[in-house]
Amino acid sequence: MSVRIHEMRLAELARTIREGELSPVEVVRDCLERIEARADLGAFITVTGERAVERAEAQDALRARGGAPSAREPLWGVPLADKDLVARAGVRTTYGSRGFADFVPEHSDPSAEAIDRTGAISVGKTNTPEFGMTGYTENAIAPPARNPWQPATGAGGSSGGAAVAVSARLLPAAPASDGGGSIRIPAATVGVVGLKPSRGRLPFANGLGSPGGLSVAGPIARSAEDAALLLDALAGGPYSYATRAPGTGDGHDSLVAAARSDAPPMRVGATLATPWDGWTDTALDPRALAAYERAIGMLGSAGHGVEEAGWRPRGYPEMFTTIWRASAAAIPVPDDELDARLEPFTAWLVREGRSLRTEGAIRGYQDATAFERETIAALSPFDAVLTPALALAPQQVGWHAEAATPLGNFERQCMYAPHTSFVNVCGLPAITVPIGDPDAPGERPWSVQLVGRPGGEAAIVALAAQLESARGPLPAPPGS
Known about the structure:
Helix content is 37%, strand content 13%. It is of the alpha+beta class. Helix 10 crosses helix 12 and helix 10 crosses helix 13. The radius of gyration is 21 Å and the shape is globular.
């Protein structure tokens, strides 16, 4: 074929396999070779090559017998991977923790089952920080996830391994999860698309569940259309809880349809405000500001009305730090084993969470509900809201851990990505899309974030696709 397998985007690869131009076995083997060749990037904690090839061989055998994938298997034969917070029966699941280095679950989480239902093939477990508690992917069980554009720098987190795998062309796309920016932060760090769905859009489970409904599953991909395809494919399975996001909205029967359509004129709010203003330094790198301003110009040229959102969040830092600490209290390690089994930052966070009085924790979640209500009301005039994706350039591996105190570490995380966590508190959809810089065409692209209304994935996916069209193609990272 004129295009190498690893260069294909998800939609093209899925079509090519379905039409028989490529077999699942040759695609999976190519993927495994890529993963092995770029092990230096730390994208994976565990690679399940034998299991993946066996599943691919079974699919090839089905086709040889005259069988075919069903319409309910849109990603038949496509290699994907589980984030290592997601349990897969019979496969080592570490939660990014040395304390769980040998844990092999008997049952799969809904997120893993959703991958299997699409017909895709899991090739392993992507790298994540310990229990996904940080916005950078460095742990004591595996090498750090490194940015393919600048390997001395980190990849962001907590879905850092998934983002690296997509950016470096190890996978065509990757399922991930996001509890405070964990899809969007790494996607923006390594120059790919990260889509955080509305609360309840996808079935979700990981090692901690989703206290307060902050964490959701979602896709990382190389385009808005591919992210939409993966989200569409993963949605629609059996649910074990009552909360369910509304339909795609805007008259589209799928998010892929939204990505492929011309977005009608929309009212877009734009804001540089963050809920961390005044609590820590949230100053923007000039290149982040330039990408934000270019996106405003692109949206205006496409016929959208862009105006200052006028959003002024209040009372956020105390509330978020309370519920963040409370969520760590559930990590399943006894108090007297914290230092032996967990990393110092995680152990500190667990102690902080367990020291909270019940009244204080409940008040934190009550305040989060009030913040959600106030923010959705303030942003309701807009079809979407534009913000920067990151405030700072990718930082050297180890930068967060160099902080003098655990709280200082957390401060650095907020300095790096001050625009993401409020989206989780509000349960809103958001997408980060790389914009690029015409004056620096070969460099890592800077990204922006589009936040939608509740259930408003279709609008932000359509806008992201328009930005991609206006921006034009981007180069791959070196070595990809």
